[in-house]
């Protein structure tokens, strides 16, 4: 549609980057929280339009990166069982667990399938009543309602051969954890637009006030990202620290009430381990007691799997902007995109993989 | 910080073959370079082109083979049979050859409806006769139910290369224009949207077509073709990255100039795909000297398969490893990199 | 994260349970059945933002145009300075 195109318009992008240059008087460290924004920044080269000193820190908003190793291992353990069809989003299939990934397991004969939507996995369960169908659901508050509805529908229709391995994470607690870190360098945030589409802007107000940081809810087209950066830098330059919505065409102040209600119905807030960052208090969502019969961790007794991440990985420091990937002693030595030690090398939205490729192309 | 291609996430080294090893990306290159090429090494194989060029009694022949596996067997715009003929004809045409003869080997899974097989064979025959080639020999094997996706087809082909013709990555020169004959990414998206569990309604047809006639038109009109490359698995980006690294030049492309249909682009947006990396089956990249750009375009545009031909980029200076730089719509240059394997629908 | 794209609702099939409400959504020629569980207010002709088979929000064309207009004014302001 034409509106979408308007937000990819080179002329609008140039205007905004000129406006950013005009208001910037000193260096700023800004974190884009969401992997989708990182994707856009890299795909379009938005960082190259910014004035010297405006430093973008790629945040932990790629669910593929932050899903803890133990959940990948749980998914692998379930998928390896006889009579199980494991479904997930395409991007989860290449994430390495301790020993292999789901694609590798599929090559060994496991029935692992890519679906576009969690409700497609429900369809597969209905079509294969004699097999156990498990959906491995990851993602932020944006994706949780889609998986929540699959659980709701399974319960309503008593679809007993369907269950969920749900590993959802929540954005505000991780922002708080980053800001709480004594050596935090992030001065402003671009908030994740589609997370706020569900949750609204309210959760971020206390964070902006308490830590005195601007949080600008931002979209994903190049013009959206530049708009978010402009609004964030303007606040920083003027000494303001507010929650601002730069994605009004999609995000409403109070988010999506129907989706929030379903989240409350199906999930409970739990502490959750984030790959690379450790345990984040209230940082995750898990199926609540009403839905325990649909919890694949219980059904297949994999709750005991607890994998430790490699200690050598310092991706947490990279995610906080404290360490440049190339400063890590394991970088490019024991840790490469083909053999990653941790989150930021797992996904090429991650900063380490980005540095690795960039350096290779520069000197190669 | 922008010289890389996001591709979330990157894989382990595998001790077994995975699907991505056939996906046209980095893993496939690794498989070929570390396992296949070292075993068979010889000067003809090292030409590293869509078909091998061999000389017999002073006559130059293009010689190629390809196996076709596609799910589903019938898709909008074609079927596995048409694909198996056109794909091999195109591999021959990319050497500038005029295709002459094809072979046809069938690996049939027990249970395939005979009517389906007949439809596929007729479709092969139709594509072959439209191209003026004969299917002259073949083989049939059957495998147990569950050991194949209905039908696999292998075709091999030979074609004749004219005397003055030298279409080869090593003929690429600075200043060359890079032309495509059609819009991008249609085949890969048409097939993907038909896969089980996708449930999309759409009007996207595969671009599956025999390009050898179009190539012969160029040659007969005296266009000096430096290089041709079929933009199949891995799409435009992978083909150009391979050619840039083979020829050791920098190629420059303008992203805004790349022809992609609205609905194809929408499908890519939904699934999180980059159309630059999606397979085509009736689309080539053509390298001609800059002075011949307009002449080549006007020959191409007279042909139904070239009506939408466009110059999308050019060859710049020499560069140690060769690379492809994409000018993004907001005017920033980004170096394109190979994907690890096939693109998978993503949520992030 | 969270890839989501806009599309236009062309048909709605209601269900007794509002969480099972579905619609056909047209994305520039690609059509898919999408859950409307979270946009109970959506009508035929509305644009919605879709993620993993679910409409998450109605797209406000008025707000989009207002943003674009604001960028334009921003540029004029910069030019004058």
TrEMBL record, chain A:
<keyword id="KW-0479">Metal-binding</keyword>
<dbReference type="InterPro" id="IPR042244">
    <property type="entry name" value="HypD_2_sf"/>
</dbReference>
<dbReference type="InterPro" id="IPR002780">
    <property type="entry name" value="Hyd_form_HypD"/>
</dbReference>
<dbReference type="GO" id="GO:0005506">
    <property type="term" value="F:iron ion binding"/>
</dbReference>
<dbReference type="GO" id="GO:0051539">
    <property type="term" value="F:4 iron, 4 sulfur cluster binding"/>
</dbReference>
<dbReference type="GO" id="GO:0051604">
    <property type="term" value="P:protein maturation"/>
</dbReference>
<keyword id="KW-0408">Iron</keyword>
<dbReference type="InterPro" id="IPR042243">
    <property type="entry name" value="HypD_1"/>
</dbReference>
<comment type="similarity">
    <text>Belongs to the HypD family.</text>
</comment>
<dbReference type="Pfam" id="PF01924">
    <property type="entry name" value="HypD"/>
</dbReference>
<protein>
    <recommendedName>
        <fullName>Hydrogenase maturation factor</fullName>
    </recommendedName>
</protein>
<dbReference type="GO" id="GO:0070025">
    <property type="term" value="F:carbon monoxide binding"/>
</dbReference>
TrEMBL record, chain C:
<dbReference type="InterPro" id="IPR001109">
    <property type="entry name" value="Hydrogenase_HupF/HypC"/>
</dbReference>
<comment type="similarity">
    <text>Belongs to the HupF/HypC family.</text>
</comment>
<protein>
    <submittedName>
        <fullName>Hydrogenase assembly chaperone HypC/HupF</fullName>
    </submittedName>
</protein>
<dbReference type="Pfam" id="PF01455">
    <property type="entry name" value="HupF_HypC"/>
</dbReference>
<dbReference type="GO" id="GO:0005506">
    <property type="term" value="F:iron ion binding"/>
</dbReference>
<dbReference type="GO" id="GO:1902670">
    <property type="term" value="F:carbon dioxide binding"/>
</dbReference>
<dbReference type="InterPro" id="IPR019812">
    <property type="entry name" value="Hydgase_assmbl_chp_CS"/>
</dbReference>
<dbReference type="GO" id="GO:0051604">
    <property type="term" value="P:protein maturation"/>
</dbReference>
């Amino acid at each position: 549609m034409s509106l979408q195109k308007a937000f990819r318009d080179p002329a609008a992008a140039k205007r905004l980057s000129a406006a950013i240059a005009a208001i910037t008087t000193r260096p700023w460290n800004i974190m884009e929280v969401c992997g989708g924004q990182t994707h856009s920044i890299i795909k379009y080269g938005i960082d190259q339009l910014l004035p010297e000193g405006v430093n973008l820190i790629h945040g932990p908003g790629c669910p593929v990166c932050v899903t803890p190793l133990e959940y990948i291992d749980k998914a692998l353990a379930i998928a390896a069982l006889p009579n199980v069809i494991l479904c997930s989003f395409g991007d989860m299939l290449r994430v390495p667990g301790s020993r292999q990934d789901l694609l590798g397991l599929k090559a060994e004969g496991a029935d692992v399938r890519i679906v576009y939507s969690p409700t497609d996995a429900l369809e597969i369960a209905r079509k294969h009543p004699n097999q156990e169908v498990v959906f491995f659901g990851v993602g932020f508050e944006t994706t949780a309602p889609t998986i929540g509805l699959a659980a709701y529908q399974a319960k309503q229709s008593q679809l007993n051969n369907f269950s969920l391995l749900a590993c959802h994470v929540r954005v505000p607690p991780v922002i708080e954890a980053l800001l709480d870190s004594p050596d935090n360098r992030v001065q402003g945030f671009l908030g994740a637009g589609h997370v706020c589409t569900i949750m609204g802007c309210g959760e971020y107000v206390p964070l902006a006030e308490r830590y005195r940081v601007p949080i600008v809810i931002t979209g994903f087209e190049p013009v959206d990202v530049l708009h978010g950066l402009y609004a964030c830098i303007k606040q920083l330059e003027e000494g303001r620290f507010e929650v601002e919505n730069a994605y009004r065409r999609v995000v409403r102040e109070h988010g999506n009430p129907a989706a929030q209600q379903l989240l409350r119905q199906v999930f409970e807030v739990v502490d959750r381990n984030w790959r690379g960052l450790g345990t984040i208090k209230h940082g995750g969502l898990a199926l609540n007691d009403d839905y325990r019969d649909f919890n694949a961790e219980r059904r297949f007794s994999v709750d005991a799997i607890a994998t430790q991440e490699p200690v050598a990985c310092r991706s947490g420091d990279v995610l906080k902007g404290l360490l440049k990937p190339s400063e890590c002693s394991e970088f490019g030595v024991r840790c490469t995109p083909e053999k990653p030690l941790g989150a930021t090398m797992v996904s090429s939205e991650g900063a380490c993989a980005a540095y690795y490729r960039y350096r290779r192309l520069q000197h190669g | 910080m922008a010289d890389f291609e996001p591709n979330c996430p990157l894989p382990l080294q595998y001790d077994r073959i995975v699907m991505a090893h056939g996906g046209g990306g980095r893993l496939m290159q690794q498989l070929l370079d570390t396992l296949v090429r070292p075993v068979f090494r010889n000067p003809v194989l090292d030409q590293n082109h869509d078909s091998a060029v061999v000389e017999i009694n002073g006559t130059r022949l293009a010689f190629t083979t390809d196996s076709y596996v596609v799910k589903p067997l019938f898709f909008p715009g074609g079927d596995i049979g048409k694909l198996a003929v056109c794909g091999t004809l195109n591999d021959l045409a990319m050497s500038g050859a005029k295709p002459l003869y094809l072979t046809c080997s069938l690996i049939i899974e027990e249970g395939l409806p005979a009517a389906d097989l007949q439809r596929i064979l007729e479709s092969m025959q139709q594509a072959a006769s439209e191209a003026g080639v004969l299917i002259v020999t073949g083989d049939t094997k059957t495998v147990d139910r569950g050991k194949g996706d209905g039908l696999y087809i292998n075709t091999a082909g030979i074609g004749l290369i004219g005397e003055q013709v030298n279409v080869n990555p090593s003929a690429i020169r600075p200043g060359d224009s890079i032309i495509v004959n059609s819009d991008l990414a249609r085949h890969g998206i048409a097939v993907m949207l038909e896969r089980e569990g996708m449930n999309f309604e759409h009007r996207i047809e595969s671009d599956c077509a025999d390009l050898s006639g179009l190539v012969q038109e160029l040659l007969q009109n005296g266009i000096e073709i430096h290089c041709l490359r079929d933009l199949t698995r891995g799409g435009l980006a992978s083909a150009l990255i391979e050619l840039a690294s083979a020829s050791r030049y920098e190629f420059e492309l303008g992203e805004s100039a790349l022809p992609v249909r609205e609905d194809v682009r929408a499908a890519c947006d939904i699934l999180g795909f980059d159309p630059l990396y999606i397979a085509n089956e009736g689309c080539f990249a053509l390298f001609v000297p800059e002075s011949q750009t307009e002449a080549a375009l006007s020959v191409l545009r007279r042909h139904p398969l070239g009506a939408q031909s466009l110059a999308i980029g050019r060859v710049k200076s020499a560069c140690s490893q060769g690379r492809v730089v994409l000018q993004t719509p907001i005017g920033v240059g980004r170096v394109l990199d190979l994907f690890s394997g096939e693109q998978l629908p993503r949520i992030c | 994260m969270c890839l989501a794209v806009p599309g236009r609702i062309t048909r709605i099939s209601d269900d007794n349970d509002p969480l099972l409400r579905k619609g056909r959504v047209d994305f520039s020629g690609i059509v898919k059945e999408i859950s409307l569980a979270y946009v109970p207010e959506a009508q035929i002709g509305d644009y919605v933002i879709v993620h993993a088979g679910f409409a998450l929000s109605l797209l406000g064309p008025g707000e989009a145009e207002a943003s674009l207009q604001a960028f334009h004014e921003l540029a004029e302001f910069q030019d004058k300075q």
